[in-house]
Amino acid sequence: MSGWNASDIPDQSGRTAVVTGANSGIGYVTARELARAGARVVLACRSEPRGIEARDRIRSEVPDADAEFAPLDLGDLASVRDFAAAWGDRPLHLLVDNAGVMALPYGRTADGFETQFGVNHLGHFALTGLLLPSILEAPAPRVVSVSSGLHALANIDIGDLNSERRYRRWVAYARSKTANLLYVHELARRAAATGVDLVAAAAHPGYAATSLQTRGVRMEGRKAAERFVEIGNRIVAQPAHRGALPTLYAATAPEVRPDGFYGPRHLMWRGAPAPSWRAPWTLDDTAGERLWAASEQLTGVEYGSLKG
User: Fold this and answer.
1) Which of 194, 53, 71 is nearest to 132 (CA)?
2) Which of 1, 86, 113, 155 pairs with 77 at a CA distance of 20 to 30 A?
């Protein structure tokens, strides 16, 4: 694993990947490098103009890329269901649950969920569940969830998943990223219990310069804070092409194991991919089962072949 980079991605010819939020940042780099390695890549993005522009950019940077755009709004379960219905029964070798929002002002999704929990966790929970038959049809399938080192700031509150009692943007973000890790833990546990050949793993980018950091302060018109974040991105953060490496590693490296969590090796901040520390509560079987049950109830999506 030492010094692992995008040139170490195994040949992905014959494999199909869906990357959510692939129009920019880590998602874009992930999609581009998977295409460079020979995968057929679907960029699942909320914005059609940005998604199509990203697809065209990948095709220009990787002339033989097999890349396409498909609309997906993780903040709207109807859109998630439409994406899955359009996918049909085609095998899906790799699903990268990458899209996310961070530290936004309080808001709700189209279905009434707190935005960060709804987009970062529930939207991906529903998408993966609806695509699961296609995933299990493919040989050596993987599901990769992009979490964050900031998950360590807060455990989920199973009694207040939508932050209705009190909303603190960074706590809500941390809880959504803890939910990503608990979800992967429970998905891996269920796959093992039912004998399903599925690698469910997670990754985080460390501190990578993307638009994720500026969106919340921009929404509030906080110009000074936006400028401060932009300076930090330039001076301190590693570029997006480095931040994407843990995701690419989790998605393709042969040695990745179910429920693995990978991030930059240096202080979980920057550097080549390595196994990452995670908060103990993200390995709690009971919490994983309770979050799973709540997620099924909230989304109406059940994983029929992976009953607990």
Assistant:
1) 194
2) 155
Is the CATH number of domain 6-206+240-297 3.40.50.720? yes
Alpha-carbon span 115 to 99, nearest angstrom = 13
Closest to 301 in 3D by CA, of 146, 44, 85: 85
Cβ atoms < 10 Å from Cβ of 86: 11
pLDDT tens, position by position, 287-303: 999 999 999 999 999 99
Quickly list DSSP for 106-166.
S-B-TTS-BHHHIIIIIIHHHHHHHHHHHHHHSSS-EEEEE--GGGGG----TT-TT--S-
Rounded to 5 degrees, what angle do the CA atoms 160, 200, 48 make? Answer: 75
Residue partners of 78: CB distance under 8 A and separation at least 6: 110
Catalytically annotated residue among 106, 167, 173, 262: 173
d(C-alpha 179, C-alpha 217), whole Å: 24
Do the strands 261-266 and 199-203 form a parallel or antiparallel pair, or are they unpaired?
A: parallel
Tokens 């097999």: give the residue: 66
User: Which DSSP state fits 208?
Assistant: B
Summary mean pLDDT of the chain: 90
Q: Pull the structure tokens for residue 82.
A: 């439409």
Q: What share of the chain is helix, strand, coil (3-state, %, to 5)?
A: 50, 15, 35
Each residue's pLDDT tens digit, 183-196: 999 999 999 999 99
Helix (H/G/I), strand (E/B), else coil: 71: strand
pLDDT value at 167 more than 70: yes
